[in-house]
Amino acid sequence: MKIVKTTEQKHYNKIFQAAKKNDREKFRKLFLQLHDRDQHAIFHLLYPDKKAKIADFLTPEEFSEIFEWMDTEDQEDAVQYLPDEYMAKVFNHMAADDVAHFLTNSEETDNQLLLSMMDKRESDRVQELLSYAPETAGSIMTKEFISINYKSTTKEVISRLRQIGHHAETIYYLYVVDEKGHLLGVLSLRDLLLSSEDETVESLMYSQVVSVRVDEDQEKVAQIIQDYDLLALPVLAYDGSMLGIVTVDDVMDVIQDEVTEDFNEFAGIRRGMDDKKMSPFKAAKSRAPWIIILLFLGLLTSSLISYFEDTLESVVILAAFIPMIMGTAGNVGTQSLAVAVRNLSIDDKDKDSFFKTVKQEFTAGMMIGILAAVVMIGIVMVIYGNPVLGIIIGASIFLSVSLASVTGSVIPVIINKFNIDPAVASGPFITTLNDTMGLVVYFTIATSLINYL
């Protein structure tokens, strides 16, 4: 077996030995003492032939709790090594949204085969979630929620909760509906338990419920849950009937996915790339367009340097400061870009907000530029003893940084107007653009003052 370098090594090794000897009772005794996450770690470390034995060692219900902790790669291993009949039973014990999430993300699973082997009721729930557009509220919601009738008493609700509560994703919010399933309000578990038994749900429920439509973008759903500090958010059909809920743990996954997606695009990598699974050829093919575009922009930068060749030949020392000016402007522009993209991602898109952001970034850029200019003038004076050179460097830094902060704020908004994800106004693009502007500013000032150097 694989060596485990953790404090639980001795316990893990006993489990590995039990699996090796096909000792089901000992395996179960040791394995079920662990937390679900640690059980997942054990499964990950097992060799393929030992993974296949899990179907003999654990019930489908027991394994379903472990399966939910796994990443997609380990889940695919489980489906590959374990019998289809066993995995279908595992899916029957899982929340429909977790099954749908796996089937959506897995590229190696025969979805239709497993769905056909599941219980019809559970299979229908999963297929409903799969039918919604990706990255919408419908695609990430869970069907396991508790709805109660507005005419029920608290005693009746508590009795029903004891019967079906263990099947729900959460019991802290109870959703009040009418006879047609339309959402009327929400009742918290706290209010339910603290009320007398003969009070009706209608008199206790909170009717100002925050909800989303089934086709709402998942990023907007995550933002609403964060803004209202909710544990779960009801998802409604177009007629107002309740279809499911999105829970805060689902939102954490969404936020992680969105951050990863924005980070990839910020780096000039296309949406939806998964470098763990993508071949080198596909990765290169997907990244190449931005690199080619940046090559042409780079040629513009090279042309500018050639254009001011006479200036450089006259005062060679000017070349030493080119990387510093380009790098500083690019860094400031990327920082402003990050602020602008964040504001757009939280729907902060009104005109006043845009000008406020630009003003703030420009002011911050000027302050940074002044500080950097003073520092550079001092350094140049000490090292080179040339006040004019210090003024050229200082003025160039100040103007380049100020312009870069505005560019980083404005470019994402312009791109967003064309219905393109603003994250594609990525760091490399902003850096290259600011390099060009920085060089123009630098050489223009240097050329105008070259006679004083």
TrEMBL record:
<keyword id="KW-0479">Metal-binding</keyword>
<feature type="transmembrane region" description="Helical">
    <location>
        <begin position="288"/>
        <end position="308"/>
    </location>
</feature>
<dbReference type="Pfam" id="PF03448">
    <property type="entry name" value="MgtE_N"/>
</dbReference>
<feature type="transmembrane region" description="Helical">
    <location>
        <begin position="314"/>
        <end position="341"/>
    </location>
</feature>
<dbReference type="InterPro" id="IPR006667">
    <property type="entry name" value="SLC41_membr_dom"/>
</dbReference>
<keyword id="KW-0812">Transmembrane</keyword>
<keyword id="KW-1003">Cell membrane</keyword>
<comment type="similarity">
    <text>Belongs to the SLC41A transporter family.</text>
</comment>
<dbReference type="InterPro" id="IPR046342">
    <property type="entry name" value="CBS_dom_sf"/>
</dbReference>
<feature type="domain" description="CBS">
    <location>
        <begin position="205"/>
        <end position="261"/>
    </location>
</feature>
<protein>
    <recommendedName>
        <fullName>Magnesium transporter MgtE</fullName>
    </recommendedName>
</protein>
<dbReference type="Pfam" id="PF01769">
    <property type="entry name" value="MgtE"/>
</dbReference>
<feature type="transmembrane region" description="Helical">
    <location>
        <begin position="427"/>
        <end position="450"/>
    </location>
</feature>
<comment type="subunit">
    <text>Homodimer.</text>
</comment>
<feature type="transmembrane region" description="Helical">
    <location>
        <begin position="362"/>
        <end position="385"/>
    </location>
</feature>
<keyword id="KW-0460">Magnesium</keyword>
<dbReference type="GO" id="GO:0046872">
    <property type="term" value="F:metal ion binding"/>
</dbReference>
<feature type="transmembrane region" description="Helical">
    <location>
        <begin position="391"/>
        <end position="415"/>
    </location>
</feature>
<dbReference type="InterPro" id="IPR038076">
    <property type="entry name" value="MgtE_N_sf"/>
</dbReference>
<keyword id="KW-0129">CBS domain</keyword>
<dbReference type="GO" id="GO:0005886">
    <property type="term" value="C:plasma membrane"/>
</dbReference>
<comment type="function">
    <text>Acts as a magnesium transporter.</text>
</comment>
<dbReference type="InterPro" id="IPR006669">
    <property type="entry name" value="MgtE_transporter"/>
</dbReference>
<keyword id="KW-1133">Transmembrane helix</keyword>
<dbReference type="InterPro" id="IPR006668">
    <property type="entry name" value="Mg_transptr_MgtE_intracell_dom"/>
</dbReference>
<keyword id="KW-0472">Membrane</keyword>
<dbReference type="GO" id="GO:0015095">
    <property type="term" value="F:magnesium ion transmembrane transporter activity"/>
</dbReference>
<dbReference type="InterPro" id="IPR000644">
    <property type="entry name" value="CBS_dom"/>
</dbReference>
<dbReference type="InterPro" id="IPR036739">
    <property type="entry name" value="SLC41_membr_dom_sf"/>
</dbReference>
<dbReference type="Pfam" id="PF00571">
    <property type="entry name" value="CBS"/>
</dbReference>
<keyword id="KW-0813">Transport</keyword>
<feature type="domain" description="CBS">
    <location>
        <begin position="141"/>
        <end position="203"/>
    </location>
</feature>
